[in-house]
Design goal:
390 residues; mainly beta; five-stranded antiparallel β-sheet; four-stranded antiparallel β-sheet; 4 helices
Length: 390
């Protein structure tokens, strides 16, 4: 039913590629730079990677026609910290799956449930899905949530989604159509008083009651749902002569969290959640500048590795940066680590391969998943060479 498989040397040979000539050097290098590395191939690429547990993730296609939505179990060998050689399970496994009639541009798991919520990038409405249940391996659509009406252009993305508990989701496509909705009843529980209509690049809770809305133009709104006060606005960092998109991510915790804003020109600006108007540090990243859409780039804080961010979407490489060594003055920086596996293993006739999504493991400090435009999915645990050389 579900078209997924492990990528093997035989597969590469069938595709007209000499596996050894292309990958030998990289795999030899990977013996020193990766603690673990597992490669998988989806029938169609995914733009979403969402954890449903510490060992399972949801992925889904984003083509204009019918798409699969899958829950994958990661290779069990990844979690065998001791006696890895005794663990035979080295493949991803499809544990639940279903189909959606449209693309999936955003997907969020609702904590404490077996539900995920999706958006197709075309409207502001959400689709609600139940993942398995009653001994079923099927992901079924079980409901929908209406979004607020809005105008849309081709340059805008769809709704962004955040979930904080088993019954509520925060969603919106623009800064003036954000709403907190009760999943079961469809009742709107909260709407912030924002008059601008800026397309959103991100929505996320930074605590149970406080959320951050990052706009594509670099503006940030910080909102406390317990009060009727207007959201706190932090304007975009100054970028003279540039017309850029911005992507945002916040580390959890209002009292000690940090926010990173990344522009399509590769400039990253770090701020403190308690004072968003001031730049704590900034850097010019070593990325390939290209024309980007709001859904192309991902920047994310490591949940278990303080000061580190992952950046993807500019090329076929996922880059890790250590922001703790950045200064207030803008300077060029090099990544701490770069995962090049997707670009290395792609075929020339497939053209340039770009990373479509990445996600840090919620507990394992250096474990990430990444997906690319050729349908490849990698899970990898990287080695910090700078630390190992000390």
């Amino acid at each position: 039913m579900y078209n997924t498989k492990m990528l093997t040397p035989e597969d590469m040979a069938e595709r007209g590629e000499d596996f050894n000539d292309v990958l030998d050097d990289w795999f030899i290098e990977s013996l020193k730079t990766y603690k673990d590395l597992h490669v998988y191939q989806l029938e169609h690429p995914t733009q979403v990677i969402e954890w449903t547990s510490g060992k399972t993730v949801c992925v889904a296609g984003y083509s204009s026609s019918k798409n699969e939505i899958l829950e994958l179990q990661l290779p069990l060998k990844l979690f065998a910290d001791e006696n890895k050689g005794l663990c035979a399970e080295r493949d991803f496994k499809v544990v639940h799956g279903g189909f959606t009639d449209g693309p999936v541009r955003c997907l969020r798991h609702v904590p404490g449930t077996r539900c995920v919520v999706t958006n197709d990038g075309l409207t502001s409405d959400l689709q609600v899905w139940t993942v398995g249940g009653d001994d079923s391996d099927v992901i079924r659509r079980t409901g929908s949530v209406a979004g607020r009406k809005r105008r849309r252009t081709d340059s805008e993305g769809g709704s962004r989604i955040a979930a904080r508990c088993s019954t509520q989701v925060l969603h919106g496509a623009q800064s003036d159509d954000i709403q907190l909705t009760h999943l079961t009843s469809g009742q709107i529980l909260y709407t912030p008083e924002i008059t601008s209509s800026d397309p959103l690049s991100s929505l996320q809770f930074v605590s149970d009651d406080v959320f951050l809305a990052g706009c594509c133009n670099g503006n940030i709104y910080l909102t406390d749902t317990r009060t009727s006060a207007s959201p706190q606005l932090s304007p975009a960092p100054a970028s003279p002569g540039e017309s850029v998109l911005w992507w945002t991510d916040a580390a959890a915790g209002v009292s000690s969290g940090s926010v990173v804003r990344l522009s399509s020109s590769g400039r990253a600006v770090i701020s403190d959640l308690r004072n968003l108007g001031a730049a704590v540090s900034q850097a010019q990243l070593s990325v390939q500048s290209r024309r980007c859409n709001p859904d192309d780039v991902t920047v994310s804080w490591a949940p278990a590795l303080p000061g580190c961010i992952a950046v993807s979407g500019f090329s076929g490489v996922v880059q890790i940066y250590n922001t703790s060594v950045w200064g207030v003055e803008l300077q060029e920086v090099q990544p701490l680590f770069g995962h090049r596996g997707h670009a290395v293993s792609s075929l020339p006739e497939e053209g340039d391969v770009f990373i479509t999504s990445h996600a840090w493991h919620p507990e394992r400090p250096r474990t990430l998943l990444s997906a690319a435009s050729d349908g490849s999915v990698h899970v990898w645990d990287w080695v910090d060479q700078s630390a190992s050389d000390r």
